[in-house]
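Thread: sanity check for a docking pose with flavin-adenine dinucleotide

Original post by kr_44:
Hi all, I'm comparing my docking run against an independent structure prediction. Below are the sequence and the ligand SMILES. Could someone generate the full complex and paste the structure tokens? I mainly care about where the ligand ends up relative to the chain.
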Amino acid sequence: MVLKRHASSLESPFKRTSVRPRLPSRCPLCSYSTRMPREPKTIAIFGGGISGLSSAYFIAKRFPNTKITIYEAKERLGGWMQSQRVVLNKDSLNGQRILLEYGPRTLRTGILTLPTLQLIDDLGLLDDVRTTSREAAASQSRYILYPRNLVRLPSPGPPDFLLLWHLWVSGLLKGIPTLLMEPFRKGRPEDQRDKDESIADFVARRLGRDYRVADNLVSAVIHGIYAGDIYKLSAKAILPQIWHLERYYGSVLEGLARLRVGVKELTDRGIFCTALSRYDWDTINHMMRDMDLDLRVLERLSVRETATYTFKEGLQQLVTRLEDELRRKENVEILTQTRVSDYHLNANNQLEVTSSSKTSNGRNRTFDFAVSTLPNPSVAPAVTVMTVNLYYTNPQAIEKWRLGYTDREKSDGFGYLIPRSVDLKENPERALGVVFDHDATQNLDQVRGTKLTVMLGGHWWDGWREFPDEKEGETMAKSIVKRHLGITEEPDLCHVSLHENCIPQYTVGYEDRVRSEGSRLADLYKGRLWVTGNHYNGVGVNDCIRGAYLLAQDMENGGWLDDNHRIGLRKFYDSGEWFMGPNQFALERTLFGSELPKYELASLGQ
Ligand SMILES: Cc1cc2nc3c(=O)[nH]c(=O)nc-3n(C[C@H](O)[C@H](O)[C@H](O)COP(=O)(O)OP(=O)(O)OC[C@H]3O[C@@H](n4cnc5c(N)ncnc54)[C@H](O)[C@@H]3O)c2cc1C
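Reply from moderator J.T.:
Ran it for you. Here is the predicted complex with flavin-adenine dinucleotide included:
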């Protein structure tokens, strides 16, 4: 692979760095290096959400001569990513436009998010980035509702003993002391070492069959990310690090302690470590080798400084910019309002795609290759979430004492999550949590009011045939913020969105299901149909972009012709090897350094 080694500094007035290979790695792509590169002539991409758009972008970058066609069923692109400026009809505010997010609202930083940074750099979005620093109130103040009050969680840094005391008396930490006995509890029996189990069962088993920590703390966090049920979601897929520590050492805490000794050479050098899979390690290596990033992007979105970020016009801006960029390319065609209804392999090993295209010659088309980003319920069922955006021109709408202080000037924080253990009387609407958007995503509006998003439903609505309508959603959201935050005034804006089947659930047995689905698809389409998207690569926007990036990388050098079970799912066919390596803060530092650090890594279980 060619190294870019600062080549781009010749093209750009900005100081740029090529992120060079500084880490030793085994290269699963090497088998292709001796082959002649071969390019597909035509590629279809199913779905115009962030996975489909970023797949098209990264593939077009690597295959500039290939004709790429994106099929999107709806009129607009972006899938669940949707931001909108809504006019505030209040004379005194002169028609101000408030930015509302109906789906995702923030992106996290981290070493595995390098492909998102590459997009931001390529699309010239850096100046529109709006960050929330690690020091900001939104990063420091996060709450859990328990049992009927908001309890602030500790943030990194020196311990705040008063806060810890409040936390203790709230009862939220019930069951935590059983953690002390965790190293003395038996691990999984030898014949069940690879057996998956639910998150609730895993956590409770490590804590002596005590479900309180799972119900109070873990369920709240999982509500915030998956809107899912910890009694159904897979521990192996969602908590792979601690699941593997137990697998290798019989105890999570003992595993951590043994690994600290194993990587003493690193810890002595002040490098903090974490458990890493071989796949993630290779991925980080490849990304560092492959990317050509403006230093300013790395600095602005550094994991040390920035916790989360969005863009001036919300996350939609990433979609809009991607769409503009793709429309500018002569080899990319975007078909909206065109639903893919069928696809199969013909006798020439090409994919015949049938769609709802209005033109008869567009309805049936043939492609050398296709990438599907469409939902796949056979690997992961999905839950339905309702988001209700509320805006109050009064910046002090939340009663401050509910947040544990009286200082009116103090920021409110990120928001709160509601664990499954909260009594039905406190949460009859079955809300998952409330985001304080006015703090969580700052500097987006010209006026400062109280901007909230109430998240409802998720696994609580599993099996429902009908969902609340807009009026009911509004009423439910208003009663939640009245009960929990003391807001009695009417909102100046309210927007209700129902997202049916929006968040895939990686339930117990997920990885096995993906592998068998991967084999089925590889056999059926002889490797000509690859898959990516939130049903496979993780449920966050960064995961979707990384999945698209790695898929495009795997397709290079004839990889797209390979009919083994790669098809965008290489992660699931990984060796399963885990070890202790530098954490993302340490790795990020290597992106800026001039020396090539050497790492002695300790394999798990040795
Ligand atoms: C309420 C909510 C809040 C979230 N918050 C965050 C957050 O804060 N941070 C974060 O990182 N992530 C968040 N997420 C997750 C994130 O939004 C998703 O992971 C991501 O948008 C998924 O993108 P995708 O392209 O894989 O799928 P989708 O967005 O579902 O895109 C799939 C596309 O395929 C189209 N399609 C479907 N069927 C067909 C067909 N037959 N033919 C053609 N087209 C078809 C759909 O119309 C859609 O446009 C949130 C999600 C939700 C719902």
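Residues 46-52, 71-74, 79-81, 103-107, 339-340, 373-374, 385, 387, 499, 502-503, 533-534, 539-542, 544 surround flavin-adenine dinucleotide (CB under 6 Å). Hope that helps with the comparison, let us know if your pose agrees.
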